[in-house]
């Protein structure tokens, strides 16, 4: 399951998956706002969770996306991560997305 919606300068994106065999899941939601006059940069917040029957982990942090052409975007996010049987710590996520 994935998708997104744009309303003016606001954009919400979501991704989720569930594996029945291993009882594992992965989910991410972000809310961003287009900044700057070029419309090529957006900034906001992302929240994510993943795990299976043995563990779970979560993260939350600011997100910046840089539009690279009409169908591609580079993203970077850094923030706080927490999960079962471990202490809170920082995380960095770097992503590149291209739509088809």
Please summarize what this structure is:
With about 100 residues, the protein is an all-beta fold.
Mind sketching the topology for me?
Layout: E1 2-7, E2 10-19, E3 24-35, E4 41-51, E5 56-67, E6 72-83, E7 86-98
Antiparallel strand pairs: 1-2, 2-3, 3-4, 4-5, 5-6, 6-7
Give the strand line-up of the largest sheet.
Answer: 1-2-3-4-5-6-7
Radius of gyration (CA) equals 15 Å
Separation of the first and last Cα atoms? 16 Å
**β-strand amount:** over 45%
By DSSP (H or I, 4+ residues per run), the number of helices equals 0
Shape: globular
Described by strand count, sense and barrel closure, the largest sheet is: 7 strands, antiparallel
The stretches of 5 or more residues where confidence is low (pLDDT under 50) are none
H/E element sequence: EEEEEEE
